[in-house]
Amino acid sequence: ASVTSQNYFMGLFSNRDFLQGPTSTKAAQGVSNIEVMLVLDITGSMNESIGGGKTKLQALKESAVSFVNIVEANDKKNGVSIGVVPYAAQVNIPVNLRNRFTFSNLSSWNGIANAGVPDINCLEFPVAGFTSTGVDLSVPIPMAVVGDSTSGTTTDGTYVNPQGRSNLPCTTIADNTSTAVDEPALNQVMLPTKNGEDVKQKINGLVANGNTYIAVGMRWATALIDQQARPIYSALLPTGDPLNDMTGRPVDNGSPSTRKIIILMTDGEHVTNTHVRDAFKSGLSPIWRGADGRYAIRFVNPSATELIRPGSGTGSLSCSGWQLTNYATREYFVPHLKRNTVRPNDGDDTEGNGSTANAAVPNACDPRAWVSTPSWSGSGTVTQLDWSEVWRYVRVSWVAQQLFVRSGVTGFTDYTTVFNSMSAPYLATAPGNTTRLDQLLQANCLAARTPVASGGAGIEIYGIMFDDAPSNRGIAAINGCSSLPKTTYYYEPKSSADLTAAFNQIATDISDLRLTQ
């Protein structure tokens, strides 16, 4: 017989992070419990066909259910618990799990501060949080904004009607009111349970949507299987139930009586996604919304230290030649009142009615768009919005262009600058640059699989790269994350049958409770 010893420092310089040598002791029933986290890719590409009349997601559901069936059949001592972490560009957790963490930037909803968005709770782990597995429940983690920070808009200076959300990066799908199912909750995290039927129901309900953030899915799995998650389990999971008793779980990292296992599956590679910066996630905004769904934005009086509105003087500072009457009180810009072209003042014209002798100027300052109160014809009741409510209704790109750039206010004339001040790639250094995401994944995987004695968590990681033509980058990400030896812990299925075989082999492997001692 032989024994394998994980070695942290060897793994830094080669793909072999273990030492192996002979042992004269015999095999024994040393493991009585197994904790499993299924980390499953539910991105939009999982809707693609994999052959045999199946999509990748259908193949995943069948394979993962088969995995659960095998594990259940072999679990004679009722010692296996399984949790599910579906991931796309984010990971969505149920509200009771969210409330076990300390968080910031909780959204307002229907005018109620800190109410949160129903069924959508995504936290944004900082870059520094990927070098460990546990999470300090007392340290605030920012909430992700529920909104569209990805889609573009018209930037030619013309007015376009408010453009709302077109995607929800927090794995969420819209609710179908004609069914009894709570569709937005289908892709939420499921905490570990010993009830296999519940696990299979969760798997079968998954819906594909969004971009690929493998590192985020992995980070949630390590957080929820690490010993620091025990207060969460104690508060939310059953105790005393002979069939589903979760008392004491997750057990201490490195416990000789328990195997901690993460199965990480994807069909692709990292794809960057933008998010709203913390400063624009919550808190009172300068934006007002009318009952008609139109908007105004307030800019304060100009001074030496504040931004200057157009029309504050004569000549180049005037509003197409008009000196705005009572300028000091006209602080609100209403974008739909601004015409796409403005005829300049020709001396005796009524404000806003330039002489037809003057050529119309595109995107010029329009005095009619500046008002003293946030109201207009048909506005009805106008409400000042929290930043989180702004993103509920309109895209970041629309706010940047229509409310800021088209206002002509000093400092807000460049669309790219304004847009980037409010949003940025999440965890990435630049749009499309996934290098840091790959690095964060590897850092978290290393922290997970490194033995406890060497400062890690001692978690076994099985990796599955599921695609008929996987990219080199995707292969490197999942292969690099997996435990050693790779022949045991890394799989590269190219068909539905291959995927089922991989899950079945893993199920058989982890169901063998014997431990060489």
Main sheet: which strands, in order across? 10-7-4-11-21-22
Largest sheet: 6 strands, mixed
Multimerization state: single chain
Q: Architecture of the largest domain in CATH?
A: 3-Layer(aba) Sandwich
Coarse structural class: alpha/beta
- Helix proportion: 10-25%
What is the end-to-end distance? 10 Å
Q: Nearest-angstrom radius of gyration? A: 28 Å
- Which stretches are poorly predicted, pLDDT < 50 over at least 5 residues? 1-6, 8-14, 18-28
* Count of distinct structural domains: 2
CATH C-level label of the largest domain: Alpha Beta
Q: What amount of the residues lies in strands?
A: 15-25%
Instruction: Give the CATH topology of the largest domain.
Output: Rossmann fold
CATH superfamily grouping of the largest domain: von Willebrand factor, type A domain
**Secondary structure tally, helices:** 13
| Overall mean confidence score, pLDDT | 89
Number of strands: 23
